[in-house]
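Issue 218. Parser rejects a valid record. Input:
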Amino acid sequence: MEQKELTEIERLKEQLQEVSRPYQQEQNQRQKKFDFLEKCARCIEKNDFFQIDELLRSKQAEDILEDSQLKSCGFVFNQMKAFAETQIENYRIRFKDDLLQLAQEANLPLEMDLPRFSVLKGIEGSVDFSTRNTEINQVTLKSIDPRRIIATVAKLKCQLYDTPFDARMFIESLLQCYREILKKEGRGFGDIVPVHQLYTDYVWSLQSKTFFQNMDKSKFRGYAIEQFSVDLWRFFQSRVSATEEGYRIRLNPGRGKSFWLIDQAGEKRQITHVLFLKN
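Output the parser choked on:
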């Protein structure tokens, strides 16, 4: 086949694809709406009223209601919404017991004073039945399903507490960063340093040599402030109370830029400055 014929065939193929593209897009949208309605039907069959409530508050539900060919869904959706709200309100009475049971099964030390709850230091949540949302640390979970709450908490606990932690190495590294800050600023040992500066320098100290040779974001080792807070608490709870030279860390509250950190007493406080002192 000559090159001219091949070019013509390719051109015709592209034109045909261009003509069919809108129909394919429409078909894909129809399929998504069909899949959504099928998912709703399965949830009704399972009496999964939490999932029904979440589905009806989603963007997909709005898209279906705006479809002129699916106007009848409005009436059905309203009935489903009323059903889900009634079931959730009834469930509210059993909510606390179910959440505690699921936490126990997941081996999570859950403490509750509704609407607030906590699991270990540094993991806190709040349930809002009116908006059907649950706040867990910095995460907004668009659900009040106890199963999803416990799953999210378990994942967070794994991230914050189940990673290897060396209390000695942690406090020695913080001391080194503290010293470097004072040295750069020409100040004496025992002076306070801003907590955000110590945190920033500590994060840089965690990076590998490879990262500094090529600062690609994929090579950067992230270290969230909530992890820093939990690691401070893990240090305070460890058998290590000071550095090898006998320096202890002190967290100071005050005015200025601050972080919410867990202090020696296990209280969450706004800390602005940090210093090291001899015993």
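Fixed in the parser; the record now loads. Residues 3-46 form the longest helix (44 residues).
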